[in-house]
Amino acid sequence: MNAGEERSTRAPPVVSRQYDNGVSGTHRDREKEILIADTGFSALVTAGLLDRAGFDPLLAPSPSDRSPPRVTVIWEPGLRVLDQLGLRQSVERCGTPVTELDRTSSEKSWEADGSTEIALVAIKRDQLRALLEQAVRGRVRETNRAVTALESAASGVQATFDHEGTESFDVAVTADQSLSADQTAEPDGRVHTWECHQFETTSRATESWGPSAATFSTPTGDSTSLRFVTTAETPARAAVSADAIADRFSHLSSPPADLRRVLKNGGFEYRRVRLAAPTSVSTGQIGLIGPAARTAL
Q1: Buried b vs exposed e over 109-119: b needs ≥16 C-beta within 10 Å?
Q2: For residue 11, pLDDT beyond 70
Q3: Shared domain check, 100 and 173
């Protein structure tokens, strides 16, 4: 199966396998057909790691491929993963080291120790995507046909491309919740997110949580990224009103006092996604990664 792309001539990996009779031998396993149904950050990282492990994954867009937040915050475990792709130093150089995270009204605040090792980095969306694409794209196979359905089968996974062509894979992973049937959804539930920038610099990030809302501020070099999230019902008109947004989050302590001015003068980005949580991170030969695998905001 090639999904419209030429197959790589890379030889399948040679592995050492322990047989039932206890004799260890060298066995040339057939190359697994692995589909990555998404092109977001998690998908690109997964494709890069599989490529370096000797596999030949196919990268394809999904129906809900959407832009991630303007700023991505990466902790030490994520930085170690990026190190496997040779990207840690580039991310630390392009991003903004965060030395303190203040979780308002919580004992779980964090402050960097005296180590020279960077443990928390904030990097802008476009910068991270450029680094990942440079490191991964060109090394893995891609198709521009969108994966519109995934279904577990006895032989692996059946993937439907553009609602018509169906092809077989051994394994599939996706960051798109709409491709996973194994999830629980809140009836008519939505997660509403707003993002904007405040042109003041700080080295401290903040979080503030309420019963159905949260606010985040993250330093990004020459500015501070502000993100507001709620699962409460939000009428369409209120979703695009700076006054309504400011009123909704004013009870949380981390928004700036002049949030109305920030929203009105600088503008904001609004997104709404379905509120659903996976009941498992894998079903059959279909695995969930990134946003699809999260059980909470």
Answers
A1: eeeeeeeeebb
A2: no
A3: yes
DSSP string, 258-283: THHHHHHHH--EEEEEEEEEES-SEE
Q: Indicate if 155 and 267 belong to the same structural domain.
A: no
Task: Choose among 185, 266, 191: nearest CA to 228.
Answer: 191
The stretch 100-123 carries a mean pLDDT of 79
> What total number of domains does the chain contain?
2
Q: Are residues 130 and 195 in the same domain?
A: no
- In whole angstroms, give the CA distance from residue 212 to residue 234: 12
pTM: 0.78
Question: In this structure, are 173 and 213 located in the same domain?
Answer: no
Task: Tell me whether residue 173 is in a domain.
Answer: yes
3 pLDDT exceeds 50? Answer: no
Same domain as 152, residue 211: no
* Beta carbons of 67 and 125 less than 8 angstroms apart: yes
67 located within any domain: yes
The number of beta carbons lying within 10 Å of the beta carbon of residue 257 is 8
| pLDDT tens-place string over residues 56-77 | 999 999 987 667 788 999 999 9
CATH of the domain at 237: 3.30.70
- What SS3 state is found at 214? strand
8-state DSSP, 74: E
The helix (run of H) or strand (run of E) holding residue 134 is helix 125-136
Residues 42 and 152 in one domain: yes
138 vs 183, higher pLDDT: 138
User: Residue 209 sits in which domain range?
Assistant: 185-274
Kindly state the helix (H) or strand (E) to which residue 218 belongs, with its residue range. strand 213-219
237 pLDDT above the threshold of 50: yes
Q: 5 in a domain, yes or no? A: no
Residue corresponding to tokens 């309504």: 244
Contact yes or no for 220/293 (Cβ under 8 A): no
